[in-house]
Automatic annotation (TrEMBL), chains B, E:
Domain ABC transporter intervals: 10-252
Source taxon at top rank: Bacteria
UniProt keyword Nucleotide-binding present: yes
Pfam families, alphabetized: ABC_tran
Protein name per Swiss-Prot or TrEMBL: ATP-binding cassette domain-containing protein
Species annotation: Agromyces kandeliae
Gene Ontology MF: a single term: ATP hydrolysis activity
Keyword Ribosomal protein found: no
Keywords: ATP-binding, Nucleotide-binding
UniProtKB/TrEMBL annotation, chains C, D:
Domain of life: Bacteria
Pfam families in alphabetical order: BPD_transp_2
Main location per the UniProt record: membrane
Protein's UniProt name: ABC transporter permease
Keyword Transmembrane helix listed: yes
Its membrane topology: Multi-pass membrane protein
Ranges annotated as spanning the membrane: 32-50, 62-82, 88-109, 116-137, 143-164, 185-209, 238-260, 272-305, 317-333
Source organism of the structure: Agromyces kandeliae
Classification via InterPro entries: ABC_transp_permease
Keywords in alphabetical order: Cell membrane, Membrane, Transmembrane, Transmembrane helix
Length: 306, 263, 360, 360, 263
């Protein structure tokens, strides 16, 4: 479980509770851990047990064998964040064909019709919101940069695209494009230091995930540009919030993983119990800044343990 | 005793080769004639093995030229050289340790199956095994297993395999770089006899050895290297062990230009 | 020296030799039999733990299906490692070939075999291209394989991203996905696995029975020796890397068929996974030894472990720990058993080297 | 046999020998000088392209700072590769050590040197622990290094995730971040780089001048020979893997200081990057040859390339392609120049092998 | 001629060792006495090198026991054996090819610097170089560079380095497995002389060679292996080359129990 306990083990309980399997997009990510917390809380209330699995990378070729094995273990319901809209289509279809109730969480599929429900975040909207935060801090405009993970990852690609689209609408801002950190803070730091060297007039950097944000913060500190560059991070784990409070990051775009998890369990249970389900739920996001972090945005912070 | 002709099958002129500060070959002339056993002798580090490598396409020289049958031909790679009918037993043998004796014997010259199988690369394994056995037996080699990797075999067994291979494939020249160093008494006699047999087929044999008795036993002509230079080129009957040893160590110096002594 | 010539008696050749060995015997004895036993033990343990879920044909079927693409890559990698080389680029070449093939098929349009066939040929051709480049740089320019294939890893992936603009292509002819990707033969055997099996069997036959295979061992055993006896070492190395590249290209089309997407962010672990499988299977990184059969067994050990752990509900973090521990244990047991089979030859360094023991 | 004993003249020993060589000469000649030239050329090209941004001390300072942690890891890896081994686990061991150290420091509380010192010792101890395990399994259980360290890679990472529940720890004593992480010596030289330099210099001295270093080369050059003359090969291998583990643990605390986070999933490429640097620096994967100096140069080539490409505004996708291509080219040029320096020894296979040319 | 005592310094009883289907050693007894040169001869593949490896801690035997100075001691690792004062020149030499002659000469026995430097592992490089030079000169070795890797050297140069090393360190027993195989005439004579000198210091020398003249020249006692079994153990003066060759090939069979022939 998210606290490192034993809640991840499915116990074949005799009380007739449902078995719910949750397959993350990538293991060990605070976003999915928060989602897991929501799922486990909701499941505990309903007397269901939860098994959690996830690949080491956000990579369909690694996720597919896991899904196949989960399907073989024959749970009652499957909550899954597909790592690719087409690649995961067939394995998830196979789960549905095996009589498992499928709920798509966070990401979705090309043809989600087999799922009882799809609950997704608006990643593109989150990217646009990140730009809004930079715009607000630097109304005069300037150069902006995106530090992403790897090309081909649907969620971070959508964030980057949303951000770039928003930049394009404001003639005062110039985008330096998207750089890829390969999910390594050190790589992000190297990119950011070099970019600042070449373009000392960068006003904002959008870091598309946690490691990108951490590396960006390190790079800015190395270059001695704290306070001059507005860094907007995506996701709001405890680490990011700490960075926000330290003034390294100026804003965070928070999704609602716990809500996704809770809703996901609710939809799955509804389907299992033959109740009506909601085909599509869109969850929103919150922009957290130093001003509202202890106030009305406090609830949006992800949990690292339940 | 020899059926030597007067055109050298292989002739080197002014070969030089330096390694770092060591001049391994220094303007070496060298020639071998068909149907003749040429002994190449010299002190340790005199450059004998380096010369053999240069003449078998394994080492680029800094200067000098090599003629085959009187003409310059491509001798820059081992495969080009073996295509000319020149085979070599290297001092460090160079067998593939993970392969068995038969595979080593036929490496690069495998007998293909007939028809489609052959085109696809399938081989006549049984035939190769049988022929290898004959070749090893001829040398009295004590190879105890034809399917064990040669890396597991004794020094003498490996040497016998390398010799069998070279003798089997050579059609014009065979270089034997200290072939009997690891061999038993009986195997050594067999190899010396094999050398004579090969010579009698009209093939030129270059025999490198530190054993003067063996040299005197089979050589028709003796060439002496000293510190990378040929210091003597004499018919075997005109010399003695004492003179040879003196030539190798520099105690005796031949007052001769190489040209004069040629044949 | 007056030694009377001793009788040239024909001694001992082959007389103490082992009885003649058939194909099966050779395979079993040589390399991979012990590790196969380890795999069977793992399967048995999970079967006992989860008889209803793990020990089902439907589950094995999926394990086999998921290992199929890696098996195709493993054939090429086995050849390369037997020559004492390495190929880090296979994952990227797979992606690149898939991308180019997908672009070509999209341009052609159509969902039929015509388009698909062109796509297959294009993918293989792309892989061969990268393989040729790798082989040429390694054999002719004498650059270490690790550097060459690390470089082409980056280049192939970068070019794939440039070609797609970083956005996966998802238009794949349906015939590919329905037949190769998810089709079955005899109702239940995945087509993709049958294809992989054909590749594996052909690869094994060529490696163990032909001149090409023999030269592969020779180059890895002693490049110097092979060169001296006139084996065209450079040409052979180029051929081996080209083979690996071509198989990676073919794997690219298999991956397209299975995932219906070019998955450019995927395959990041592929090279290490395949190399690990080859080494688990008893092939030495120092060259000269190895079997395709061993590689296939080496692929299944981590695959079965992961499947079993997921099914028995082991936490993902613990899975990593357990897979690591079992990997080491499996190879250790293999080691000990092989040594024991050699009867106390534990001190024979040569043998250890030959069996890839100490340093492979 | 009546050979008159020839005069035992003292021939030629050392007479044709090169003039005696000092430390610098030996370093330069032996391995890494050519590749240093390649690095300088790359620096010059970028300096010409972007004199105002690239060719600034402020920029070089950052490049050096960012390479510091990898340099510490590179020292250990150089030793290991010289013994013909490999260590894939360094990235995970770094993470694990950082995690345990962060947990201990968090439990102790406090932002001062007391806590930090405990943390440093704990990190190094953790690294040594993993190194010992690796070394023991490799030397005593005779399991191939690739398998052992692949296994411990998974185990260390899994345990790190279990310890933290997958959530990075961000509480790091401020003294660490302000002094080691971002402090400067003499106003402008990053403290972390000075620390790395000390490790590098110590590593080089031990490798090139002590018995320990000599035995490292001996084990890699011929394990059999080393064993036969009584070098305690097993003990030495354990020591070398322990050294690498300890340095990875130390790198863990450096990483904590620099990034203020345990960055659990963030070291997946570290092992390959470091291995590539070692090989670029002229160390042969087949053992027996290599220098620490070469490894350091080998680290800077990709680092400078990446920095230069970002500064000159090369598109990210093209960057990967260019880094790959330049890597191959750099090693090729190094190769050609070294061969030329040997005066036409291009045919000497032995030399190629010695210089790590062909297959390293 | 020999200052031999009556207690063997090294004694092997009933050693057996099998490789796969090959029985390399078959109930071999073997003993060497201080101050005596024992020649160990036999055909290729007779098991001589295997016996040497077994007696130098490099190979575990299947059965049999080894006594040192009449007592069982740990002889399971090469370092334990060299601690007893036993040194070996192996047939395949086993030098570290990337190290130079001096480093090879002192490998595992480096001379530490005095004081702290020594504790830290620094070595007296100059001293080692000077002493090596003396040792090589003594053998008349033609090692041309003390700083080049031995892997680049000629076969004879490498062999000389290995011999110099073993002779330099041995205090009780030295095994020489075909030490003169690659050596020049002069170097061979030097080695034979060195063998006598070492013997006269009271060290036991085991000399393996296929050259019967050399064996007759230096050996005090000759033991013959055939197909993994000792078939003779005779004082050198009581035999002839013909008898030895016959024994090795099996043409002559000694009707003797090993016990009777002991000394
Ligand atoms: N690849 C090499 N690199 C550097 N030096 C070399 C190389 N090969 C040979 N040498 C040197 O060249 C000289 C000649 O060596 P070569 O092997 O030809 O001698 P040789 O006459 O065969 O001696 P031996 O009788 O001992 O076999 C030696 O001093 C040797 O050290
Ligand atoms: N590691 C090994 N594995 C398998 N067989 C071996 C191994 N070592 C030796 N043998 C075999 O044992 C037998 C004895 O070999 P050994 O090397 O002791 O012979 P030798 O008397 O030294 O011969 P030579 O005079 O040729 O050096 C040979 O038949 C050889 O093939
Ligand atoms: Mg020679
Ligand atoms: Mg022997």
């Amino acid at each position: 479980g998210c606290s490192g306990g034993d809640s991840g083990t499915s116990t074949a309980d005799g009380d007739g509770g449902y078995e719910i399997a949750f397959v993350q997009g990538v293991a060990g990510d605070e976003f999915y851990i928060s989602m897991q917390c929501g799922i486990e809380a909701a499941a505990a209330e309903a007397g269901a047990t939860v098994t959690v699995q996830g690949p080491e990378q956000f990579d369909p070729t690694l996720q597919k064998p896991i899904v196949d094995a989960v399907v073989a273990s024959n749970p009652d319901a499957l909550l899954i964040a597909p790592t690719d809209v087409t690649a995961m289509q067939a394995p998830i279809q196979a789960a549905a064909d095996a009589g498992i109730q499928v709920v798509l969480v966070d990401t979705t599929l090309e043809d989600p019709s087999m799922a009882v429900s799809q609950i997704s975040s608006d990643n593109a909207g989150g990217g646009a919101a990140a730009f809004d935060a930079i715009q607000e801090a630097h109304p005069e405009g300037g150069k902006v940069l995106v530090v992403s993970i790897d090309p081909g990852i649907s969620t971070s690609d959508a964030r980057g695209e949303g951000f770039e689209a928003a930049v394009a609408e404001d003639p005062n801002f110039e985008s330096l494009g998207i750089e890829y950190s390969h999910n390594e803070p050190a790589e992000a730091a190297r990119i950011v230091t070099a970019a600042l060297q070449a373009n000392p007039d960068i006003v904002g950097i959008f870091a598309a995930n946690l490691f990108a944000a951490e590396g960006t913060a390190t790079g800015i500190q190395q270059a001695g540009k704290q306070g001059e560059v507005t860094v907007v991070g995506f996701d709001a784990g405890p680490a990011q919030v700490q960075a926000l409070k330290d003034g390294i990051v100026q804003a965070l775009v928070a999704q609602e993983p716990a809500t996704i998890g809770t809703d996901g369990v609710a939809q799955a249970l509804a389907a299992l119990n033959g109740e009506p389900t909601e085909a599509k739920i869109q969850t929103g996001f919150t922009v957290i800044t130093a001003d509202n972090v202890d106030g009305d945005a406090a609830d949006a912070i992800y949990k690292s343990s339940c | 005793m020899s059926i030597a002709s007067s055109v050298p099958v292989l002739q080197a002129r002014g070969l030089s080769r330096q390694f770092g500060h060591v001049r391994a070959l220094n303007q070496v002339d060298f020639e071998v004639f068909p149907g003749e056993v040429t002994a190449l002798i010299g002190d340790n580090g005199a450059g004998k093995s380096t010369l053999v490598k240069a003449l078998s396409g394994n080492l680029a020289v800094d200067s000098g030229s090599i003629l085959f049958d009187g003409a310059e031909v491509d001798m820059s790679t081992p495969s080009a050289v073996s295509a000319l009918g020149i085979e070599t037993v290297y001092q460090d043998l160079a067998l593939a340790p993970h392969l068995d004796p038969v595979q080593n014997m036929y490496l690069g010259r495998e007998i293909p199956r007939g028809g489609l199988g052959g085109l696809l690369g399938f081989m006549k394994t049984k035939e190769m095994r049988a022929e290898s056995k004959v070749a090893f037996d001829e040398l009295g080699a004590t190879v105890r297993s034809l399917t064990s990797p040669v890396g597991e075999m004794s020094g003498g067994q490996r040497q016998a395999i390398a010799i069998a291979r070279a003798v089997h494939w050579a059609s014009r020249v065979v270089f034997l770089d200290e072939p009997t160093a690891a061999l038993g008494v009986r195997q050594t006699q067999n190899v010396l006899e094999t050398i004579r047999r090969v010579r009698d087929k009209g093939i030129a044999v270059v025999f490198i050895s530190h054993s003067m008795p063996h040299v005197m036993e089979v050589a028709d002509r003796i060439q002496v290297l000293r510190l990378g230079t040929r210091v003597a080129n004499i018919p075997a009957e005109n010399t003695s062990m004492e003179e040879l040893v003196g030539l190798m160590t520099g105690a005796v110096v031949h007052e001769q230009s190489p040209k004069e002594s040629d044949r | 020296m007056s030694i009377t010539k001793p009788p040239t008696e024909t001694v001992a050749i082959g007389t103490l030799d082992e009885p003649k060995q058939g194909f099966l015997q050779r395979l079993v004895r040589a390399q991979a039999f012990q590790i196969l036993l380890v795999l069977l033990v793992i399967v048995l343990i999970f079967s006992a733990l989860a008889p209803d879920t793990f020990a089902q044909w439907s589950n094995f079927r999926l394990i086999i299906q998921n290992a199929s693409i890696l098996a195709v890559l493993g054939v090429g990698m086995t050849y390369i490692i037997i020559t004492a080389g390495i190929d880090l680029s296979i994952g990227s070449v797979l992606v690149f070939s898939g991308v180019v093939s997908a672009i070509v098929m999209r341009a052609l349009g159509g969902e039929g075999w015509g388009t698909a066939l062109v796509g297959i040929l294009v993918a293989i051709a792309c892989g061969i291209g990268w393989g040729l480049l790798n082989g040429f740089l390694i054999a002719k320019a004498k650059i270490p394989p690790l550097i060459v294939t690390l470089g082409s890893l980056g280049m192939a992936l970068g070019l794939a991203q440039i070609l797609t603009g970083g956005v996966d292509i998802r238009e794949v002819p349906t015939v590919l996905t329905t037949t190769i990707g998810y089709g079955n033969i005899l109702g239940t055997i995945p087509t993709i696995s049958v294809i992989a099996l054909v590749v594996v069997v052909l690869g094994a036959i060529v490696l163990h029975f032909t001149r090409f295979g023999l030269h592969t061992y020779a180059v890895g055993s002693s490049e110097l020796a092979a060169r001296r006896v006139g084996v065209k070492v450079d040409r052979h190395l180029i051929a081996v890397y080209t083979l690996s590249g071509g198989l990676a290209g073919f794997a690219g089309i298999l991956s397209l068929s299975q995932f219906s997407t070019t998955a450019i962010a995927g395959q990041s672990q592929t090279n290490l996974n395949v190399i690990a499988a080859v080494v688990i299977g008893g092939t030495s990184l120092f060259g000269g030894v190895g079997t395709i059969f061993g590689t296939v067994v080496g692929l299944f050990i981590p695959a079965v472990l992961q499947n079993g752990f997921v099914i028995t509900g082991v936490q993902p973090f613990w899975q990593q720990v357990a897979v690591g521990a079992v990997l080491i244990t499996a190879v250790y047991i293999d080691q000990v058993r092989r040594t024991a089979a050699m009867r106390g030859s534990s001190q024979s360094l040569w043998r250890k080297f030959v069996s890839g023991g100490r340093r492979g």
